[in-house]
Every structure is written in structure tokens, then in C-alpha cells.
Amino acid sequence: MTFPALSALSALSSAASAAFTTQAPAADAAPAQGSFSEFLTRQAKDAAHALGEAETAALDGVAGRASLTEVATKVMAAERTLQTAIALRDRFVSSLQEISRIQI
To answer: Angle 74-80-83 (CA atoms, 0-180°, nearest 5)?
Structure first.
């Protein structure tokens, strides 16, 4: 059993890394910690991992190999992660719509 959200997060990760590119920093500028696309990619991978752990914990709970507390904790963490990913997606789409409204 897999969640459709995992494929959606993977697609979001791919879109984020394709949509955002960074320029090379100037010689006198301090080195950056990472680009925004790297941040989004890392967060999407972490979200997919959290959803996978919740799925595994739920299956283990059904089979009797995991406690109810462990299952509930992982499922709630996955829900928070998914809601965060949905909020980021909504903001991303909203900002793209706002950019498309700019008159040239």
C-alpha cells in the first residue's frame, strides 16, 4: 500500500529543482549555505521519508508489531509534514500566478 502523496512530493521536488536555479556567488560575497532549490529538494525528500515511515508504522501496527503510541506519533508527524508540503505548494502556485499577472 502506498500513498499518492509520495509521488506528489517527488513531483514537487523535481519541479522545485527545475524552477529555481542559482547564480554563482560573487568573489567577494560570503559562500551561501545552499540554494533555495536544494532546500526545497531536501525538504521534499524528508517529507517523503516521513510519509514512508508512517506507512510502515501503520502496517506494523495492523500486524501487531508496533504499539499504538508509535503508530499514532508517526502518522501525526506525517500529517504535519504533508500539510506543510501542501502549504508550500499553494504558496508556490500563488507566487507563480502573481508573477504571471505582472504587466510588462
So the answer is: 140
Q: How far apart are CA 82 and CA 84, in angstroms?
A: 5
Residue type, 75: V
pLDDT digits (tens, 9 = 90+) for 50-104: 999 999 999 999 999 999 999 999 999 999 999 998 998 999 999 999 999 998 7
- Quote the pLDDT of residue 87: 93
User: In sequence order, which residues have a C-beta less than 8 Å from that of residue 41 and are 6 or more positions away?
Assistant: 13, 16, 17
Q: Hey, what's the torsion of the CAs at 11, 7, 90, 78, to 10 degrees?
A: -130
CA 40, 43, 48, 51 dihedral sign is negative
